[in-house]
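It is time I had a proper look at our fold encoding. Can you supply me with one protein entry, sequence and fold together? It will help me judge whether the discrete encoding reads sensibly. Leave the record below and I will have a look:
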Amino acid sequence: MKLRFWILSILFIFIFGMMSITVLAHEGREVGEYTIELGWRAEPAYTGLINGPEITVTLHSSDEESEETPEAGAAQSNTVQADPAETNGIIGLENTLRVEVGFGPETRELNLRPVIGEPGHYVADLIPTRPGDYTFRVFGTIDGTEVDETFSAADGQFSSVEPIEDIQFP
């Protein structure tokens, strides 16, 4: 009974810790006037644990544009706009951007959804079942700007998926 309690306690602490991990590694790309960053929600990623890609889309900001950014973003479209806060996060992309995961020759499209309270931040759910390098393809449009970018763990910007046995005990 005590052993079961300790195992459940350790599992709870591990899962809670995975949910609170900050971003360790993401790859960024500039597409038109936007910056797209992608990585795992929890890194390192392990087989058998819920995870998935997280994507952040922001409007480029420069010293000259920083004062104009919210208005420029808001005027771009009725459905896609920059958040008026300091983040410059682009909202409304869950219907215009898609994300596809790939492992070897297999691919699958994932459901992208916005993170409440974090403008420009989107996630999709995935439980990786095999260790190795996964790729993510982000495609679609951002207010008329075509997007078709592929991000790969093999490039080293975000982690490959590790076998769950690496962290299991006993």
